[in-house]
Design brief:
This protein is an alpha/beta fold. The protein has eleven helices and ten strands. The N and C termini lie far apart (62 Å). The strands form three sheets. A six-stranded mixed β-sheet has the order 4-3-5-10-6-9, with helices on both faces. Strands 1-2 form a two-stranded antiparallel ribbon. Strands 7-8 form a two-stranded parallel ribbon. It has three domains: 79 residues, Winged helix-like DNA-binding domain superfamily/Winged helix DNA-binding domain (Arc Repressor Mutant, subunit A, Orthogonal Bundle); 100 residues, D-Maltodextrin-Binding Protein, domain 2 (3-Layer(aba) Sandwich); 102 residues, Periplasmic binding protein-like II (D-Maltodextrin-Binding Protein, domain 2, 3-Layer(aba) Sandwich).
Length: 302
C-alpha cells in the first residue's frame, strides 16, 4: 500500500513505545494517556499499511516491519537530537567533533590524537563513541560521525563513500609487568617460546602481522587471552596476566600508565592508524588540527 506520508509525531510515539517496552510505560514517560498513545500508534500503522507490534501474552513485541521501522526511527531521532545540540551551540565559539573510535585502537593512541583538539584557539566539544569497525563506518556514512579513528583502512570495493587517511605508523614493542619483563627480556625473541601472551583477536588488523612475526622467529607463545577491546587487554597486561604488544611511539606513556617494562623491540610489526572521513580532503578544523599535530611530532614514531 502506498503511504500518504509519515506523521513524525506518531513515529515518535512508536519509537518511545518500542524503547520503553510497552504503551503504559511510554505513556508515563510522555505524560500522556494510554488511549492517546494507542490511538496514534494505530493511525501510524494505518498510514504505513503494516502492523508494527503484535501481542504475545501480556507482552507487546515488534513485528518484522516494526523492527525495520525502529532502525530508521533510531537514525531519525538521533539525528534530530544532534541537530538540536548543534543549533544550541551555533551561537557559541565551540566546535563540535563527533569521533568514532574503533574498539581495537589503543586508547592511549586515541587520546594522543584527540589531545590536539584541546589546544585550538576555538574550543572544541568532543563527543566520542566506541564500537566495532563496521558499525562505526555505517554511522559515518549516515553523517552521525565526523571522523572514525581506527587501525585499518577501508576495504577496497566497499559501497560506502568514505575515504581512508593514514595518520601515522609506528613499530611495536613487547612489554609486560616488571616481573614478567625481567624473566623474558634476556635472549629476546627466542625467550618468548612458551611465554604468556595477551593478543588482539584475529579480526584485528595487527594480529596477522604478529602471528607472521612469531612464525618467522619460530616462537610459539602461550596465548592466555585474546581481546577485541584493547583497553581490556591492557588492563590484564597491567595486572601481570601476560606480555603484550604496544606502539613503540608510546613507550613512555605505556610505562607510566600501565607500569609495563620493555621486553624487546619489534620493528617488523608496524601498527597503523587511520582517520576515515566522508571527504577525500578533510575539512573539519579539529580533524585538521589532529593531522597537523602528528606532522609536528606528537608521536615520536619509530
Amino acid at each position: 500500500m502506498k503511504t500518504t506520508g509519515i506523521n513524525f509525531r506518531h513515529l515518535y510515539f512508536f519509537w518511545v513505545v518500542a524503547k520503553e517496552g510497552g504503551i503504559t510505560r511510554a505513556a508515563t514517560r510522555l505524560g500522556l494517556a494510554v488511549q492517546t498513545i494507542s490511538t496514534q500508534l494505530a493511525q501510524l500503522e494505518q498510514s504505513l499499511g503494516k502492523s508494527l507490534f503484535m501481542q504475545q501474552g501480556r507482552t507487546l513485541v515488534l513485528t518484522e516491519a516494526g523492527r525495520l521501522a525502529l532502525g530508521y526511527a533510531d537514525q531519525i531521532f538521533l539525528l534530530g537530537e544532534q541537530m538540536a545540540e548543534a543549533l544550541g551551540e551555533a551561537d557559541s565559539a565551540r566546535t563540535r567533533l563527533s569521533v568514532g573510535i574503533s574498539d581495537s585502537l589503543p586508547k592511549l593512541t586515541a587520546f594522543r590524537l584527540l589531545e590536539a583538539t584541546m589546544h585550538l584557539p576555538n574550543p572544541v566539544r568532543l563527543v566520542c563513541y566506541e564500537d566495532q569497525f563496521d558499525a562505526l563506518l555505517a554511522d559515518l556514512a549516515l553523517h552521525k560521525l565526523d571522523v572514525v579513528l581506527t587501525d585499518r583502512a577501508v576495504r577496497s570495493g566497499t559501497t560506502l563513500r568514505v575515504f581512508s587517511h593514514m595518520v601515522f605508523e609506528s613499530a611495536t614493542i613487547v612489554v609486560g609487568a616488571p616481573a614478567l619483563a625481567a624473566v623474558y627480556a634476556k635472549g629476546f625473541p627466542a625467550s618468548l617460546v612458551g611465554a604468556p601472551f595477551l593478543l588482539p583477536t584475529r579480526n584485528n588488523a595487527l594480529r596477522g602481522r604478529i602471528d607472521e612475526w612469531f612464525d618467522q622467529h619460530q616462537v610459539r607463545p602461550d596465548v592466555v587471552g585474546e581481546f577485541e577491546d584493547n583497553a581490556l587487554l591492557n588492563t590484564f597486561g597491567r595486572r601481570g596476566a601476560g606480555l603484550f604488544f604496544a606502539p613503540a611511539a608510546l613507550q613512555g606513556d605505556i610505562e607510566e600508565q600501565f607500569g609495563a617494562k620493555l621486553v624487546g623491540q619489534v620493528p617488523q610489526v608496524r601498527e597503523q592508524v587511520f582517520a576515515i572521513s566522508n571527504e577525500r580532503k578533510i575539512k573539519h578544523p579539529a580533524v585538521e588540527a589532529i593531522l597537523a599535530s602528528v606532522h609536528e611530532g606528537v608521536f615520536h614514531a619509530a
